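Annex B. Sample input.
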Amino acid sequence: MMTDPIADMLARIRNGLMVGHEKVTIQSSKMAQRLARILKQTGFIEDFAVGRVEHRESLVLKMKYDASGDPIIEGLRRVSRPGLRVYSAKSELPKVRGGLGIAVVSTSKGVMTCHEARKLGIGGEVLCYVW
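Annex B, continued. Sample output.
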């Protein structure tokens, strides 16, 4: 049993980008699908699809690269983890790379970027940074 599926997802994305894979397959969950939706909306990945691979539900992410072949995602970092949860008030939501990256926040209104949480005036658990 996996103790931290979000960290596993971020590690698989990071590893896939380092070797230049076009697609990355991860174990599907509601949280993974929400994170994939946010990554697509913010332009960090091209697309994602839910399907069955080897008798289990999987999430296939299509990675995005620029014209020179460099990945759009420069870095990923897990912030809150099962052993140490990190929460942020609405006034203390982080700015990643001076606003060029995003922080994914789990709020009472759902999982969203730090920009959306600031607009709604709510805080929550800071899941990860993407830049």
